[in-house]
Amino acid sequence: MSDKIVVKNLSKIFGKNPGKAVKALREGISKDEVLREQGQMVGVYDVSFTVKSSEIFVLMGLSGSGKSTLQRLINRLHEPTCGEILIDGKDITKLNRKELREFRRKKFCGMVFQNFAILPHRTVLENVELGLEIQGIEFQKRRQRAKEMIRVVGLEGTENSYPDELSGGMQQRVGLARGLAVDADIMLMDEAFSALDPLIRRQMQDELLELHQKMQKTIIFVTHDLDEAFRLGDRIAIMNDGRIIQTGTAEEIISSPANDYVKAFVEDLNRSNVLTAGSIMQPVVETAFLGDGPRTIQRKMRKKGLSGILVTDTGRHIRGYIRADELAEFIKKHGDIERIPFDNTLLHEAAIIREDTPLNEIINMYAGHKFGPFAVTDTESRLKGVIVRGAIIAALSETGRDDFGNGKDFK
Amino acid sequence: MFPYRVPLDEWITRLVSIMETRFGGFFEGFSSVVSFLVTVLKDGMLFLHPLLLIVVISAVTWYMAGWRNSIIAFLGLLLTENIGLWVAFVETLALVLTAEILVILFGIPLGIWAARSNRCNAVIRPVLDFMQTMPAFVYLIPAVMFFGLGLVPGVVATFVFALPPLIRLTNLGIRQVPSELVEAADAFGATGMQKLVKVQIPVAKPTILAGVNQSIMLGLSMVVIAAMIGAGGLGEDVLRGIQRLQVGQGFEAGLVVVVLAVILDRITAGFGQRRSYNGPGGAS
Q1: Nearest-CB residue to B184 (from A100, A105, A111)
Q2: Is residue A124 one of the residues assigned to a domain?
């Protein structure tokens, strides 16, 4: 994946003499002191990070941490005080107003806001058209595109309704459709789901992930909700006091928090100590047997759409794990044979955990584990279920949901 | 207390006379435009049979404000015709409408400008304060000096009096557009004009129309005062009633002013509640 957005030493000071504030900050004076002595507000200070193409990058922090400011710097709704923002290699801090407008039209989808920010005087259809209209796209074309997007977000039939006739969730879909209607590849979402009630929020998160799968936009998502950050983010940047404290995947942040601040956050997700493998495992869809031939195994995987499969003996004891891509390679090379060879070229050692293993231990194990699900066994070492990567994060993010057994007792 | 008195009155008088000589041409041109507008409106309305115009106005009221208001308008207008104040009514309506056209022409752009530029706002605000608090009679003197007696200074005085609320409410309405809405347009790469036309003005529309409504109401309250400089219309009948102590006649004319005020108020208030500029309907 290539680098889409590279931010280098970016700062934003709100005040009359930003240079003075930056100088003070360089000398190690704190943000609060700058505010007290100079009356200048430090929004973001000396932030650097990279967003890769087609990833969901979450800026997570409490209110006042500078996350929304940082996001608005990226499309220059706020003017940066100093630093560089490279988008596809181009430094956008150097663009003049006209160039900036062109750049926004070309590179950015519409922003999605917490309070939806859709226009009350326009119908759903007209709202979705806004971005295309601003780009000067002709009527027929933009109508068609808008209708398509309305279908994508599941709002068919509401084209001619006005926003105040829609529920919050539906209004946010309008916002999403409006953002997506523009054919660009960076999408900025500012607390987009924070105003929705929890059930709708989760549903919207799932739909966003699904849409992201299909459309492969680069998304920068701002949120104050760690659960949401972990559910959505490929990578997460945790912010405090205008700085980024830690950037990493959910697993990295949970397993090795950068400092006490992050630790305190993560400890809120203490469910990891009480949930066990058994409570989050999923039923095994399909297994291969030691006696199966390569083609049979391949067929089993294809039928269920699996990228890998666990191999057991007749007593349900786990013997290994086979990857679909390697199996295909193997068949190409050797053709079909009666049974798979019992060595390490094809049959990998499976990661096995017992069903009473606590979740935080699983996370630590995950760091060293390259591929494949965890096989969960009972005390007799018989296969009971599997845990896939997503399930761990999901379990950590769940707040009292019923379908995770023990999970509902802990919030 | 002081041996010296600031000759403020002299200065103002001199300023007015300088303006009169320097800008005489401008005032004359302006005057002819205004009197043309008023005359066209007045003659146009008087050309129609009163009953026809009554029906038309009632129909517009029905369309904009519902049948209840329409019935009030219809009965009120019939009464006006019946007591012989129809011509005065039309004259006043023409005067108010002309003033209002000018108010909208100047007020909305100035309000938008004030909303977009803090500097402009800082200049305009004290001027508006001055215009609103200065006793209305005081406008009449320079208005007469620049435009003579008659309809035109009446329109100008009404214009000056009715302009501030529209500027203020346009300014307020645009400043109150939620910042996220403007940011949404900005993020799409909108130009200043696109933001204004597609987001700010439509969202601020109810507030701007409340400003139009307020300025019409203020304009009507100026009607009687304008009659003192010969603007004619209902104000003249009210004045005559006062001068001759004919309570009944004065009251009649006053009542017709109220009828006109109610009709104009309901119609313009109806505008503010509509959903879009184009066409009838809307779910409201």
Answers
A1: A111
A2: no
